UniProtKB/TrEMBL annotation:
Residues 372-532 form the Exonuclease domain. It is found in: Nucleus. Residues 96-106 have a biased composition (Basic and acidic residues). Belongs to the REXO1/REXO3 family. The lineage of its organism: Eukaryota, Fungi, Dikarya, Basidiomycota, Agaricomycotina. Keywords: Exonuclease, Hydrolase, Nuclease, Nucleus, Signal. Residues 80-95, 125-135 have a biased composition (Low complexity). This is Exonuclease domain-containing protein. Coiled coil: none annotated. Residues 74-137 are annotated as: Disordered.
Length: 533
C-alpha cells in the first residue's frame, strides 16, 4: 500500500508539471507584462523557453527595491523582480535583528543620481488630557494568573477608578492609574488562578458603591487594602487609652524645650511684670507688611493701611525653576498683596511678653481635680498689647472637652484685629474671664504634674503666660523634613496620619477644641505606629 501511495503522488506531480509547462506560454503570452523588461540572465545564460522577458537590444531595466526607513536605497541594492531580496550587509555595531520591510517603491536603475526613498510618515497620536491606562509589568513565570487576563482586569479597574475620581482627577491626574495598579497587585497577592476573576468583580462592585470624593483625603480614595488599613488605624487610635507610662518617654527634654522656644523659668531681674500692658502710642513694625507705624486703638487706626498676604509661603516649581508661592492667592512671591487691614504687631521675646502680662509657673494639684493628661489649644487676636489670647480649650485624655472659654482683654488693651480667618473669633462681648481669671480656672485641670499635649505648644503657653515643663509637642514627634525652625502644619498632619480634615471652615476660622483633639489623636497615632511590628 505504501508503494501505491508514493506512485500516485509522483504521478500527480508529473502531470501537474506537464500541465504547467504547456500552460506557461499561454499565461505569459496573453498579457506580456514583462515584455518591456530586459532579461536579467542575458541572451546566452537564459534557459527559459519561452522567456517572458525581452531579449531585444536597448530594453529598459525597471526593477523593484525594498525601501527601509533607516537609510535610502541605492543602485547597488536594487534587485530584479521575481527574485528574493538578499539581506543587506550589517555593520559590526548594528544588531543582527532586521526590521521587516515597510513598503515597495519603484526606482529606475539607469538614473545617474542616487535614488532617494522617502519613508512613509508614522501615524500621529492625537494629544489628549485624559489619563492613560497603566501597563502591567510583571514576570509571566512568576504570575499565578495569565498576564493577558491580568492586563484586561487592570484596564477595567483603571476605568472604574477614573470614573470614581472624576471630581479630583484634575488635581491628581495619576491617582487612578496608581491605585489601579496597586489594587490589581493586592487582588493577585491574595487569590489564585481560580478565584482571581471573581475577586476583581467583587472589587468593581465595591468601587461603584463608593461615594464620590471631594478631596484626596476622602474615605473613598485608595485601594481596598489602603482603606482597610486606615480603618484599622482609626479604630486603634480611638480605642487606645493613654496612661502616664505610655507618655513619659515622649516628654520633651530640657534641651529640646529650649530649642523649640519654651520657657523653663522666670528670671528674677524681669521684675513683677505687667507694667506695660498696652503699646498705645509706641512705634512698632507691622507683623504683616513690615512697615513702621504708631500703635493706635481700632477706632483711631486706619483699617486699610496694611496691604499683605495672609497665607503661608510654600515651595513650588514654575517653568522648572524653584519658586515660593503664597497659599492665599497662589501668587509667586513677592506678588501683589491680596488683603488689606490695620497694621498689627507681634512680640516674641519673653521679656517683652512678661512686661505686657506677667508669667507664672504651674502649681501642684491642691484640689485633687487636676488631670493626669490634657490637650490644650488657644486662639489669638491682635491687640494694642500685641498678640493676645482670646479663646482657650482643654480636652482630657479621652478627647472630651472639659474647658472652653473666651478671654477678655486686660484693662487698657483693646482688640485691633480679631484675625477671624485663623482664630474663629468675631467678638469678645460674651467673654467673662480675663487672663488672670482664666489661668485661675485652669488650675482645676492643669497642675505642675499634668502631661500637657499640643501642637506648637510653646506659643500657647507664652500667650497664656504659663511656664510648664511636662509637655509633649506634635511638632517634635512629626518634625519637618527641612528641620528646625520649619514646622509641619497641624491640618497636614491630621490629613496624613488621621485621614481627617480640620481647619476647613475657610473665613470662619479654626476651632481650638478641634485642634486640641487632633493633637491628642496624633500622639495616640504615634504610639500605635510605634507598637506595630
Amino acid at each position: 500500500m505504501l508503494y501505491l501511495r508514493v506512485w500516485h503522488m509522483l504521478a500527480r506531480s508529473a502531470a501537474a508539471f506537464q500541465w504547467l509547462q504547456l500552460a506557461r506560454p499561454a499565461m505569459f503570452s496573453a498579457h506580456g507584462h514583462f515584455s518591456a523588461i530586459a532579461c536579467p540572465d542575458g541572451d546566452r545564460a537564459c534557459k527559459r523557453a519561452p522567456c517572458p522577458f525581452s531579449h531585444a537590444a536597448g530594453a529598459s531595466r525597471t526593477m523593484f527595491v525594498v525601501a527601509h526607513d533607516a537609510e535610502p536605497a541605492s543602485s547597488s541594492s536594487t534587485i530584479p523582480a521575481k527574485r528574493p531580496a538578499a539581506p543587506s550587509p550589517v555593520s559590526s555595531s548594528s544588531s543582527a535583528r532586521h526590521e521587516p520591510p515597510r513598503k515597495l517603491q519603484r526606482v529606475e536603475a539607469n538614473t545617474a543620481s542616487p535614488q532617494r526613498v522617502v519613508p512613509a510618515p508614522a501615524p500621529s497620536t492625537p494629544s489628549t488630557s485624559t489619563p492613560s491606562a497603566p501597563t502591567l509589568r510583571v514576570n509571566a513565570a512568576q504570575s499565578k494568573v495569565p498576564v493577558i487576563l491580568r492586563q484586561t482586569m487592570l484596564q477595567t479597574l483603571f476605568d472604574h477608578f477614573l470614573a470614581l475620581y472624576q471630581p479630583i482627577i484634575s488635581k491628581q491626574p495619576d491617582l487612578a492609574a496608581s491605585h489601579a495598579l496597586q489594587q490589581e497587585a493586592e487582588i493577585h497577592e491574595r487569590t489564585n488562578k481560580i478565584t482571581y476573576r471573581n475577586a476583581v468583580k467583587t472589587c468593581l462592585i465595591g468601587l461603584k458603591k463608593r461615594p464620590p470624593p471631594d478631596s484626596v483625603s476622602h474615605i473613598s480614595v485608595g485601594t481596598d487594602g489602603q482603606i482597610a488599613e486606615r480603618k484599622r488605624a482609626e479604630d486603634a487610635v480611638a480605642s487606645l487609652v493613654l496612661t502616664r507610662a505610655m507618655l513619659e518617654p515622649l516628654l520633651l527634654s530640657e534641651a529640646s524645650m529650649l530649642e523649640l522656644g519654651y520657657m523653663l523659668d522666670i528670671p528674677a531681674d524681669w521684675g513683677p511684670g505687667g507694667e506695660a500692658p498696652s503699646a498705645d502710642g509706641a512705634e512698632m513694625e507691622c507683623d504683616r507688611c513690615k512697615e513702621r507705624y504708631v500703635v493706635r486703638p481700632l477706632d483711631q487706626a486706619d483699617e486699610r493701611a496694611c496691604k499683605f498676604h495672609w497665607g503661608r509661603l510654600i515651595g513650588t516649581r514654575v517653568a522648572g525653576e524653584r519658586q515660593r508661592m503664597h497659599t492665599c492667592c497662589a501668587e509667586i512671591a513677592p506678588g501683589n498683596p491680596c488683603d488689606i487691614g490695620p497694621h498689627v504687631f507681634y512680640e516674641k521675646e519673653p521679656a517683652l511678653l512678661h512686661a505686657r502680662h506677667a508669667f507664672s509657673l504651674t502649681e501642684p494639684d491642691e484640689t485633687g481635680t487636676a488631670l493626669d493628661i490634657a490637650a490644650l489649644d488657644c486662639e489669638m487676636v491682635y491687640s494694642t498689647g500685641g498678640m493676645r489670647i482670646a479663646r482657650v480649650s482643654v480636652v482630657d485624655s479621652a478627647g472630651n472637652m472639659v474647658f472652653d472659654q473666651l478671654v477678655r482683654m486686660d484693662a487698657g488693651v483693646s482688640v485691633i484685629d480679631f484675625n477671624t480667618r485663623f482664630s474663629g473669633v468675631t467678638s469678645l462681648d460674651e467673654a467673662v474671664l480675663d487672663l488672670d481669671g482664666t489661668r485661675a480656672a485652669l488650675k482645676s485641670y492643669i497642675s505642675s504634674s499634668t502631661i500637657l499635649i499640643g501642637h506648637a505648644l510653646d506659643n500657647d503657653l507664652k500667650t497664656l503666660r504659663m511656664v510648664h515643663t511636662r509637655c509633649i509637642d506634635t511638632v517634635a514627634l512629626f518634625p519637618h523634613k527641612a528641620g528646625w525652625p520649619y514646622r509641619r502644619a497641624l491640618r497636614d498632619l491630621a490629613r496624613e496620619c488621621l485621614n481627617r480634615t480640620i481647619q476647613n471652615a475657610g473665613a470662619a476660622g479654626h476651632s481650638s477644641v478641634e485642634d486640641s483633639v487632633a493633637a491628642l489623636d496624633l500622639v495616640k497615632f504615634y504610639i500605635v505606629e510605634k507598637r506595630r511590628p
